[in-house]
Amino acid sequence: MKRSSAIICVLLGLCVALLAGCSLIAPLVSAAAPYAGLKLYFACLPEHTRIDTPSGPRPVEQFEAGDVVIGFSGKPVRILQKHSYLENPETVFLRIRFENGAAVDLCGMHRLDGMRAKTIRVGQKVAGHQVVAIESHQGETHSFDLLTEDAGYRIAGMPVNSMIEEMNRAAATNLRSLRGDL
Asked: Of 8, 33, 84, 172, which is the most buried if we count CB atoms within 10 A?
């Protein structure tokens, strides 16, 4: 997977170089190229993941900017942005289960209480709860993320970090690199 991702990133770079001279396409390619490679690593939350709200959990795909969810801090916050992505059905998502019955579905790069999901192990404590099982699954075709007023949200009571700002920082670094600003 990593080798094919590297090849795709190189091909994207070549496309950027070839299309940069076209005055109509260059701005669009320049804006999108830094994000395209990142999306191969960040798959966010699979469709149907239920986000905690003051009136009970709701599927992530039902939210819009301005809606209220339970934030990372455990208090109600507004959604500032919602991002949705088309996924390759071969993308691997993790389901992390806790001793209190909570389960969180997310990609391995997503952060759960500040820790990348792919680094979490059975027996480890996350936000005061012990991990009892980690399962992987595929077949998802859409994923989502939310940026809230406190940069996160809750799934089954567990604090989940929004990855939108981290992806934006990484994309800005990629863009500077593509332009030679570094």
From this structure: 33
